[in-house]
Amino acid sequence: MSKNLRNLPEVQELIKKGKEKGFLTYEELNDSLPQDFTSVEDIDSMLNIMDEMDIEIREEGKIDKILSGKPAEKASEEMEFLDTEGFSSDPVQMYLHEMGKVPLLEKREDEVRIAKKIENAEINVKNAIFDTKAGVDELKKLNDDMKTGVIRIIDIIKTKLEGDIPPSVEQRLIDRFGKYIKQADRIEKESKDVSVKAEMKKVKPKQKARLLKTLDNLKKKKRDCLHMLKLNNDQIHLISKKIVSIVAKINQEEKELAQIEKRFGKTYVEIKTISKKRGDLNRYLSKRRMKRDTFRDLMIKAAVIESNIKKEENMVGMRREDLKILAYTIKRNILEARKTRKELVVANLRLVVSIAKKYINKGLSFLDLIQEGNIGLMRAVERFEYKRGYKFSTYATWWIRQAITRAIADQARTIRIPVHMIETINKLNKVARMFVQQFGREPKPEEIAKKMGMSAEKVRSVLKISQHPISLETPIGEEKDSHLGDFIEDKDAVSPASAAVNVLLKEQIEKVLHTLKEREAEVLRLRFGIGDGVPHTLEEVGKIFKVTRERVRQIEAKALRKLRHPARAKNLKGFMD
C-alpha cells in the first residue's frame, strides 16, 4: 500500500484539509484513515508525506482527551458505558477501576523522558555485551547461522519489514550485517594486541598511558560499529542471558572452591605455595591431621575448579571481578528498561479501551479485544522512536488497531479467513453501505465490482466467503423445539418407500432362490453378490466349489432358466418397474 499511499482518497482528503488549515490534529489523522491502515511502513510513510507537505500534526484531539482528565472520572465513564451495553460487569469494572488509578502522562515531554530512559538502558546493555569477547562471538555465530539459513535476518535486527521480504533485500541486509561483524572482529584483534603491549613490564608509564588511551578509542570504535547492526531486543536478551549465566556458573564454582578452602583452613593460593615444599607440606598435614590422599583429592578438585574459572574468563575476555560488575550492569539496565516500558504501557491502557469499543460485536468479547489491544500497545512501546517527533499515542493507535483486527481475523470466525481477504471484505462492505445510502437499495455484484475495480466473479466469491457459518443445532421456531438441521435434506439418505421396496425385494429373491437346488442358489448368490454385495467371477466361484469355470457357467445358466419360469418370475415381475 505504501507505494500508492498518496493516491488514496482518504490521504488526498487529509492533505487537502491540512493545506487549508495549515495543520491536522491527531483526531483527524486517526479517524480519517481506513481501519485496515495498520502496517508499520504505511504509518511511517503517512507521517513522511505530512512532513513533505509542511502539514503540522498538533497534539489536540480525541486521543488527548482520552488520555487526559481525572482518572477516576474516566474509569467511571467507561463503567457506565459497559453497564448500559449489558456486558459482564465484574472483570471489566475491576480492570477499569485499577486502570483509573494510574497517573497519566500529561505532556509529550513525559513520553520523551520515558523513551530516553528506555533507550539509555538498552544502550548500556548493548555496550556491556559488545565489551565482551563472548558477546562478539555470539554475533559471529548469528552471522554464520544467517548464511546457512538457520535463522533469518528479520529475526535478528530491528526492521520495519514483516513476513516475506524479497530475497535481494534480505541478502543486502545479511551482507551489511556481515560487513560490520568483520570490522568489529578486526578491531577486537587490534585491541588484543594493544592490550598485550600495555601489560608488558618494560613499557614506560607515558607509553602505557598512550596505549590505554588507544585501547579506549578502539573500544568506542567497536561499540559504534556493533551498534550499527541494530540488534532487536530479543537477541540482546538472549546474549545477555548467556553472559549472566557464565557469571552465575563462576559464582557457583567460587562457592565450591570456598568450601574446599574451608577444609584446608587456608586459601588455595596459600595451599599451592605450601605444597611446593615437602617439609612445609608434611608439617601442614600433621598439624591439620589430614591424610595425604585426602589432601591430594581436594587439590585436584580445587585445580579443576580454578581451571574452569580461567576458561570462563577467557571465553568472556575479562577477569572475573570485572565480569561480575558487567553482569550486574546488564541485569540492572534490563530491569530498568522493563520497568520503564511498563510505565509507558500502563499510562496508555485507557487508549486501548477507547479503540476496543469500536470493534464490539465483531466476534470477540470486550475483554478479549482489550487483551489483544494491550499486546499491540506493548509492541508499539518496543518500536516507538521519540526522535521522529510524533506523539506516542498516535503511533500506538495503529499498532493497537492492527493487533485487534488481526485477532478478529484469526479468532472471531469458526473458519479462519486470511487477513488480506478480511481487508477486501471490509472494503466491499464499505462500498455496499455507501451504495445503499446513495440509491436506497442493495447493490448487485456487478455494481460493487465496478466501484471496486474487480471482476463480478471475484465479488461473488468474496461475498460467499464473508458468510458466517451457522450451527445445525440452532433452535428454530417460537417453541425452540426443533433445530436448523431438521430442515436440511440429506441427499444420501434412503427414502422410507425405497427402503421398504428393497426389503420386500430381498425377501422375494430369497423366497425364489429357496425353490432352486442349494448349489444353484449359492452359485447365483456368489455371482450376483446377493447378501454381501460383492459379485464373484466364474474363476472365483469355481475355486469355492472346486469345479471348472465352464461348469459354474452351466450351473448359472440352468438356474437362470428356472427363474424365468412363469411360476417363479411372477414373484419378481412387480419389481421391474
N-C termini distance: 67 Å
What sort of overall outline do the alpha carbons produce when their principal axes are compared?
flat
**Total strand segments:** 4
Structural class: mainly alpha
Instruction: Please tally the helical runs, counting DSSP H or I stretches of 4 or more residues.
Output: 26
Lateral arrangement of strands in the main beta sheet: 1-2
Q: What order do the SSEs take from the amino end to the carboxyl end, as H and E?
A: HEHHEHHHHHHHHHHHHHHHHHHEEHHHHH
pLDDT average, as an integer?
82
The residue fraction in helices comes out at: over 70%
Unreliably modeled segments: 61-88
Radius of gyration from CA coordinates? 40 Å
Taken as a percent bin, the fraction of beta residues is under 5%
Main sheet makeup: 2 strands, parallel
Please explain how this structure is put together.
With 577 residues, the protein is mainly α. Among the domains are: 132-231, no CATH class; 423-466, Arc Repressor Mutant, subunit A (Orthogonal Bundle), CATH 1.10.10; 500-573, Arc Repressor Mutant, subunit A (Orthogonal Bundle). Helix content is 71%, strand content 2%. The protein has 26 helices and 4 strands. The protein has helices spanning 9-21, 26-32, 40-52, 62-66, 71-85, 89-100, 108-130, 133-148, 167-198, 205-227, 233-264, 268-275, 278-288, 292-316, 320-347, 349-356, 366-383, 392-411, 419-439, 445-452, 456-466, 496-513, 518-528, 538-545, 549-563, 566-573, and strands at 23-25, 56-58, 475-476, 482-483. The strands form 2 sheets. Strands 1-2 form a two-stranded parallel ribbon. A two-stranded antiparallel sheet has the order 3-4. Helix 11 packs across helix 15 (320-347).
